[in-house]
Amino acid sequence: MSGFVRGPFVPSTGAQRPLSIDDVEIHGGPFGRWQRVNREHSIPLGIEQMERSGAVPNLRLAAGEGSGAFRGFRFQDSDLYKQLEAVAWEHCRLPDDAYPAFVAESAALLARAQRPDGYLNSHYQVTKPDLIYQELDYSHEMYCAGHLFQAAVAATRAGCGEELLAVARRFADHLVRRFLVEGDDGIDGHPEVETALVELYRLTRERSYLELAGKLIDNRGKGLIAERGMGPLYAQDHLPVREADTAVGHAVRQLYLEAGIVDVYLETGDESLLECSVRRWEDLVAYKTAITGGHGSRHDGEAFGERYELPPDRAYNESCAAIASIHWNWRLLLATGHGRYADLIERTLYNAFAASTSADGTRFFYVNPLQRRADLFEDAYLGRRREWFACACCPPNIMRLVSSLGHYVATTDDEGLSVHQYVPGTIRAGAITLDVETDYPWDGRVRVTVRDTPGGEWTLKLRVPAWSASGDLTPDANGYASIRRAWEPGDTYTFDLDLTPRLVLPHRKIDALRGCAAIERGPLVYCFEQIDQDGDLDDLALTPDTWLRTVEHDLPGAGRTVLIEADAVRLPSASAVPVFGGLPYATASADLQDHTPVTATAVPYYQWDNRDGGLMRVWTPLM
Amino acid sequence: MSGFVRGPFVPSTGAQRPLSIDDVEIHGGPFGRWQRVNREHSIPLGIEQMERSGAVPNLRLAAGEGSGAFRGFRFQDSDLYKQLEAVAWEHCRLPDDAYPAFVAESAALLARAQRPDGYLNSHYQVTKPDLIYQELDYSHEMYCAGHLFQAAVAATRAGCGEELLAVARRFADHLVRRFLVEGDDGIDGHPEVETALVELYRLTRERSYLELAGKLIDNRGKGLIAERGMGPLYAQDHLPVREADTAVGHAVRQLYLEAGIVDVYLETGDESLLECSVRRWEDLVAYKTAITGGHGSRHDGEAFGERYELPPDRAYNESCAAIASIHWNWRLLLATGHGRYADLIERTLYNAFAASTSADGTRFFYVNPLQRRADLFEDAYLGRRREWFACACCPPNIMRLVSSLGHYVATTDDEGLSVHQYVPGTIRAGAITLDVETDYPWDGRVRVTVRDTPGGEWTLKLRVPAWSASGDLTPDANGYASIRRAWEPGDTYTFDLDLTPRLVLPHRKIDALRGCAAIERGPLVYCFEQIDQDGDLDDLALTPDTWLRTVEHDLPGAGRTVLIEADAVRLPSASAVPVFGGLPYATASADLQDHTPVTATAVPYYQWDNRDGGLMRVWTPLM
User: Fold this and answer.
1) DSSP string of B23-77?
2) Is B302 a known active-site residue?
3) Could you give the 3-state DSSP secondary structure of residue B133?
4) A7 pLDDT band (50/70/90 cuts)?
């Protein structure tokens, strides 16, 4: 049955089974808004950039058709592959003839660019054919292949992938010959192909793809990544995956690798793979995850930091890392049925991920810090959201996830249906059809109506978010409330999640957040933007008993929101702070008693930077 | 007269005049220890590395003598130049025939490598002669030239520089022809040549060198640095120097540029240059300087951060930035006579700079953070001190400063003699000879004995450190206590500086240090190392009224020290801290009431990492 599911992840085993993207219609709320602007603005912009950024022209060069020089990064092909995947899922969600046409045109170009032996990478074919597979530690050749495979799987499941799948299989077969049959032990410096190979196996049942994925995972930690460049730790080659206890190095690399590890477990039953991945998940969540679900504490190497190294201002929290984290958590959720993974997906979706895109879908963040300190930014990848990037890994990655959001809402198992994310819409799962009515996350009321139902009893499982301390639902050990009955068409079940605003404190070992608090409501992390405050944002302080109240609002340019007003204080101006020989260190502390009561206004973090480019902070000092 | 001073900086004007390195004999204390290990261990190690690291072999290739490929960075030549400068000043300080021999041998090689037209850069000559001066935004060609000029000035003033000076002048004349006479407006992406050209002018009185330095400074901020690579802000090309208000980009670049700016002011009298540099100094000290005097808050780009962005763990504080800061502050001190610059030199010397080298002079830090969080370091440039680096800008830079430390102790003016740094030893300035007896910085007592004195009155000026709140000396507006009298041989003046340990608090706007305190005593910043504590360092907290007491001690491997014992508390273990769905964020804070009294032991920061590789922190949470 799983072969007929139209979605990015269709495992053969696991505690839960996924639904097709088009089996979940999303009718509104933030998810609905994101899908609308993604279709109307982001995807057309991305398609246009495929030409402008060099991705398509590079492939023409490889096909011997164009003129000029290769442009962009060695992984420039992957932009097109992610764009194709976004287009395919969008066609699956809501068909439009333009989408298969773009896929067909691209697949034809790829077929012409592909070497007769199946190899395909415009950078190496055009600029250094003699170095093919010779620089695997940083070449991204398998990384690009992986994105091609995912695009081909998506297009095939969306019904428009025949030629693209042929291209993908020829490349996959080429990899299999070289790295499985002929026994080359090379691994790519950037994991990604592992999860893609497993999905290609799921689609095609060609077992060598799964075997190659397993071999690539088993080969990590054997010193195959050279010390040159960023080194083994950066690329998770410092330890075998079954031995590593903590996420290290480049965040996106680690997180895609984890997705591949769980994928191989799901197809082979190798428990040691699930076990090591869950061990690192627990470590990652306890020590290296931002309150937004973001990952990667360092600009240097786009990397994880040490345990408890979680700076708000210099957090990297790359948009791609949020996407990779959602992929990994979704695999863990379906493998184990445990709601903690759905909780983290929700936190990541509504915060680290959603913040990556402007409200109108035309601009993107690459880096998602929790504080904007000043107006001056040295790094082109910081500051305001931008339409595109020289390294444009994020925008098409964002688009493919938004198009496929329906995949992440609900699952089935032998007992019935589980709802993981609360969105207004319709969920179809075999003989069951549910309508979900809710204004979540602005309001906590959710009403589920059974429209179609098979005969006999089945269980409706509803995720109880860990933050919903006093809602209507009582969770089981996995974090779900179960309602088992012989449902009749028209039956409804209504419940409330607890959206009382929360003042959240950091663990005392997070040095960078000491003495601060953040505000959350439901799944949303809030932030203060300068534009909403009286006085300097950096003079604002909360108190441990700060009163928080909600205000319905329309944010110009960003649509519907709920603001939170906090009874805060404004500290005496910074000029009152003692200094020492001009330095900002002194034996006496600032006299903060002379503060002024003030109302501070917070907006959902994901909606920040939709007005001006002013200061922002998620974590605010506590008096 | 200034032409006869044997030291790195001999300006024609200014409020104060420098002394020769060999006019200040340092007999002990930390400065004396650093000079001893520098001579016995560091300099021999550096000379050996000139061969091993490729610096000398590269020049042989350029001379058509060697075989093999160019090794290392495009600025590899500069390692040899800094090493030559260190050797020259060491010879000036305490002659040894081996030093002039090394200089002569190197100069001969450089002369053979130099092109007939005067150009000299092994990287470009060997690997890409067609791109000479075509990649100035990152080529380091003028940067390397500047270090050659400084080495030649040092060797000449030390009496062993004839051939090296000839090489330097030929290259300088080549630069003058291209960039002054022929009117090429290029600037080097890495400032350094400006200050070096001015010093070469001071030595040779060849005015075109000064004019070129002025032109290079005036040309910054005109968009000559391309957007490619690290971009204009990184290389201080974002604004003309007279318009920029704050230090930005690569810290070492900014600080060397400032030294050149003050140098040009001192020779031309262009007050607008002094004014803009002082404006940035005040901004830098108030907002972007670590308590150790370190500069550069970001690994990414080895760069300054935003105002108040001063993380302890991820601070970069490159050793070279400390050296460049001392160079700049020394120029400002001599230009203005203001003690605040000597204060910052002292803070930087005893902390950010001194920490860069192991107690035995055989290992070096490139990066000098204020916190070591764990044992696992991804970056080869972090962790323990290392014998050498692929990018070895720091070690020979450290050596040249240690050899020339005598230059930074005292100055003269028409009124008499000023003592800026308190070291046991002898100071000769014309007809005046002083003996200084002190156990500073371990003890605050200083006794100055006049051994030789001219007839009539003159003024002895003694710097009163800004931290010496209740010492014997009363400072004037410039921070100096003046004793004017008709001194007789044998006269003594004894005073005490206040070395009471201080608990120091950060400005409330430094987010990364909120809720923490540091310990200082005299010029020394202290830190806690794990090895000295009972229990986990990260469970330690101080209280606002923590009692601090000093303990005389010998630190194994690091020699004499004074420890500080603090009445601290041990917080309940981290496992008692609430978490939220596994994340380190919760609506309830840790219960810290169940803490245990404990004695915490601090060591001077500069002596850290001389025992094990354990955790360290300068800033410790306050209960």
Assistant:
1) GEEE-SHHHHHHHHHIIIIIHHHHHHHHHHTSHHHHHHHHTT---S---S-TTTH
2) yes
3) coil
4) very high
- What b-and-e string marks burial along B222-250, b requiring 16 or more CB atoms within 10 Å of the CB? eebbbeeebbbbbbbbbbebbebebbbbb
Residue to test with chain B: of A316, A378, A536, most B Cβ within 10 A:
A378
Check if the interface score ipTM surpasses 0.85.
yes
Three-state DSSP class for A492?
strand
Structure tokens at A570: 């404004």
Regarding pTM above 0.90, the answer is yes
Tokens (6 digits) for B582: 């596994």
Beta strands in B369-513 (DSSP E): 371-372, 410-413, 416-419, 425-429, 432-438, 445-452, 458-463, 480-485, 492-496, 502-506
Inter-chain residue contact A309 with B309, CB threshold 8 Å? no
Q: Concatenate the DSSP letters of all residues of A417-463 into one string.
A: EEE-S--SEEEEETTEEEEEEE-TTTS-EEEEEEEE--SS-EEEEEE
H/E stretch holding B341: helix B339-347
Contact B511 A512 (CB under 8 A): yes
Q: Are B230 and B250 in contact (CB under 8 A)?
A: yes
Tokens standing for A516? Answer: 């601060």
Instruction: State both tokens at A312.
Output: 């708000």
- Count of CB atoms situated within 10 Å of the CB of B488: 8
- Domains in chain B, ordered, with CATH? 26-408 (1.50.10), 411-496 (2.60.420), 502-621 (no CATH)
Distance from A131 to chain B by nearest Cα, in Å? 20
Query: Which tokens belong to A224?
Result: 């195959």
Instruction: State the Cα–Cα distance between residues B397 and B297, nearest whole angstrom.
Output: 20
Q: Can the peptide bond before residue A441 be classed as cis, meaning omega within 30 degrees of 0?
A: yes
Are the C-beta atoms of A124 and A117 separated by less than 8 Å?
no
**B286–A579: do the CB atoms touch at under 8 Å?**
yes
User: What average pLDDT is seen over chain B?
Assistant: 94
Q: Does A390 touch chain B (CB under 8 A)?
A: no
Q: Tokens in use for A59?
A: 């492939």
